[in-house]
Amino acid sequence: MIACVAVVGHQNNPLYLQSFTEADDALKLHHIVHCSLDVIDERVNNPKRSVLTLNETFLGLLFPTESYKVFGYLTNTKVKFIMVTTDLDVKDADVRSFFRRFHAAYVDAVSNPFHVPGKKIASRIFAGRVSGIVKTFALGTNG
Amino acid sequence: MGREVAESCVDGVIIEMVSAYCKRFYGTKPELAARRIEAIGYQVGHQLIERYTMERPRFSDHLEAIKFICKDFWSELFKKQIDNLKTNHRGTFVLQDNRFQWLTHISIDPSSDNSEATEDPSVSMPENKAAEATSTHLYFPCGIIRGALSNLGIPCAVSADISNLPACSFVVRVKA
């Protein structure tokens, strides 16, 4: 069950932040996303060649906290996608396909001529697509 | 999910955009028109590169990114690749397209090709005007290249060189 997704620009400015839990811990999720940005920077600047291919977009599990897992994805344009999930046994393939669909939705949202690059993504269609992707992810892992 | 548009429509829109900006909107200020057209190209390149680098692993250095522009990006835009890439390995790249699609509709006046190296300004006037008019059509592709490269994290300046039409060279200077 995905708790939160975030899109962060290349200057670590937040472009989109959406939490999917009913509880009121949005702030804690934002904090987790913020901390994971540091992990991404570290991974990209000091690549552990044995663990991660140098140039892959999918960064994998960033760090596990006590009840969440955080996954990262870095695009060619240095935009980072972060996904926080409460599922403790997600399959790698599911997460990769989640990020692929999320990337497609992001590209469509950014191709909007009225979108100003660097500002937050304000498209309702994007928000709708993201919740759709999150729902299918939840169904996929429960099925 | 994508709808298709005839290529000639895109060519027509671009030619009309250049004409509208140069003659109607900024008729008295050609430098402003050039900057506006280049800015439009910048935004287009910025958004296009996001779409075309979707499935790819990240680039390891500037040369990889420029090669991507020469091959995949150019094929997506013009169904052909850049014909020649030269670099001085110090931040300058020259991308040469031997038959740039958006210049194919511009006629080359054969009489002005026999340049006799006369310094007579009245003779070189029409040639200069033709070159000027042609260069206004190149601001847009220069902007596209600049927008694409800066979204990949490579700030640069792009200019075009039209010494022999229909071949066209784009000179990319990476800002250190």
Automatic annotation (TrEMBL), chain A:
InterPro entries: Longin-like_dom_sf, Sedlin, TRAPPC2L. One of its GO terms (biological process) is endoplasmic reticulum to Golgi vesicle-mediated transport. GO terms for cellular component: cytoplasm; nucleus; TRAPP complex. Pfam families: Sedlin_N. Belongs to the TRAPP small subunits family. Sedlin subfamily. This is Trafficking protein particle complex subunit 2-like protein. It comes from Musa acuminata subsp. malaccensis (Wild banana).
From TrEMBL, chain B:
SUPFAM superfamilies: Ligand-binding domain in the NO signalling and Golgi transport (SSF111126). GO terms for biological process: endoplasmic reticulum to Golgi vesicle-mediated transport. GO terms for cellular component: cis-Golgi network; trans-Golgi network; TRAPP complex. It comes from the Eukaryota. InterPro entries: NO_sig/Golgi_transp_ligand-bd, TRAPP_component, TRAPPC6/Trs33. Coiled coil: none annotated. Belongs to the TRAPP small subunits family. BET3 subfamily. This is Trafficking protein particle complex subunit.
